[in-house]
Amino acid sequence: MSHDTLTPTSVFLIAGLGNPGPRYDGTRHNVGFRVVDRLAQRFSIPMQERKFPAHWGEGRIGGRKVVLVKPMTYMNRSGEAVGPILRYYRLPPEALLVVHDDLDLPLGRIRIARRGGTGGHRGVASIIQTLGGGEFARLKLGIGRPRYGESVEAFVLDGFYSDELEAAEEMVDRAAAAALAVLADGLEAAMNRFNQRRKSTDQQADQPGD
Description:
Pept_tRNA_hydro_sf, alpha/beta, Rossmann fold, 19% strand, Pept_tRNA_hydro, 35% helix, globular, 7 helices, 210 residues, disordered N terminus
């Protein structure tokens, strides 16, 4: 399998974004945390909180050294955790995959991107500011838009609607699989596989609420 679309470094860092504390467990803004938790559990990677303002750990996935990171700085200061860990491992931004929620994707859809701007996401903006640019890959998880006139801030900091819970869980599983595909096959192959529109999920996500 070719890794020519990834940095040739021997270590890869996956940072899932979210807010710390039980108040934010299960919220839309914390789906990045859930993906990292899924990977840590599956591959028995121990997570710790020391040296950096993050819940993080290192292990091996598919024969490759991987560092999993959940910033404990709150979303809009995510770069304060991700930047120091990248520097500690002497990694370039190209060795980073940031996993985060995306309002512009329907619930259930995921999208991998090589690089880009903030997309209006404060956690991504903080990482770009810290690293001095957006030359890192992103794994975006669709959370859709408010149904009932909620503000965007209230929407992302709330849990999924009851009829969205199953789709959200499936999306987290699919995103974890996408992260593994990036590691195993490279960005290009993972993008070709996971960026395809899933009609059944999208049609369901586009249905109005009761």
